[in-house]
Amino acid sequence: MSDTKFDPAFTISDEVALRELFGPTHDLASQKVIRSLDRHARDFISRAPFLCLGTQDMNGRADVSPRGDQKGFVQILDDRTLAIPDRPGNNRLDSLSNIIANPAVGLLFIVPGYDDTLRINGRATLVTDPQLLESMSVGGRAPRIAIVVTVTEVFMHCAKAFRRSHLWDPAHLQDRSEMPSLINIVLDQTTGAPDDAEEMRKLDANLEEDYRRTLY
């Protein structure tokens, strides 16, 4: 299987050509970027139980990782510093390894029911300070590491993407059972999923039990 190719005449490879396709930026859109966390950004972060963390390695290979917990799980340390607990995962450590190689990060904060989002760009450091980690404990379990972000850009993002996607509209919720389970998909993509339905149900149950035991 080969990669799809496009005629170079129909590809955009420089910013001048890109901007010729669009109208000028609205003045307010240009001015809205601020350099620290004002009261509105702080309020939004305190309400957000979910964010997406964008990182890149030293070669520019990009990665986006979801991060979620109870609302307000991201700590605001000062007007230009955030701390994100790194909860247990699969130990691939993609985001953390990328931060070591390239500390530039992008954050997208999402609040259920809100169509607008908060975007923050900055530089990240991996921190193991015991006092900070203990302050992030849940049920007596502290994270092993925190992602501390020095903020360089803060701005609100408009609602168009969420409006177009109907993300929070119950009428647009999809039935998860229409696709195989997560473990079924991963096995299909790797070693092969079992044909036996009962065995597959046991694997699904084991994954749910693992979620219960290792959430924190």
TrEMBL record:
Coiled-coil intervals, chain numbering: none
Gene3D superfamilies, per the entry: Electron Transport, Fmn-binding Protein, Chain A
Superkingdom of the organism of origin: Bacteria
Domain Pyridoxamine 5'-phosphate oxidase N-terminal: 38-158
Pfam families the record matches: PNPOx_N
UniProt cross-references to NCBIfam families, sorted A to Z: PPOX_FMN_DR2398
Name of the protein: Pyridoxamine 5'-phosphate oxidase
